[in-house]
Specification:
Helix content is 35%, strand content 25%. The protein has 162 residues and is an alpha+beta fold. The protein has a single domain, classed as Gcn5-related N-acetyltransferase (GNAT) (Aminopeptidase, 3-Layer(aba) Sandwich).
Length: 162
Amino acid sequence: MIRPCDEKDLPALYGIINDAAQAYKGIIPADRWHEPYMPMDHLKEEIGEGVRFWGYEQGGELVGVMGIQDRGEVELIRHAYVKTAKRNHGIGGLLLERLESRTRKPILIGTWAAATWAVRFYEKHGYRNLSREETARLLRKYWNIPERQIETSVVLASPAWQ
């Protein structure tokens, strides 16, 4: 079952994000990795900035989460994670489809360039990898991330993106 997450889900969100983010350890630049990957105060800050999380619940437990953030003319998919033990069962695809169905705006997704599995996942779902120049411009416009992260990230766009 896919459902919106609320404040009572914070511990589960935190757990899923930090479990699944272990896949980035040793892949993304070492200067961008930290433990935990997303501290609780950062998670709360993201929610305060308008990231709305949806979760995939299985057997009464959240096992996957994905956020969406309205940024005016576009929506951003933010913080998409599935518990390590539950990966490769279609959960991420179901969450993405649900969030796509809730907007008519183009969707942009930023992820680490070195996270080739994530890039392939989004490409498989119809997103296209944007040029380096467009990626940098969009990351500066719609995200609040440091320059170092801009240098090491990609942006993928839904088919609705011009």
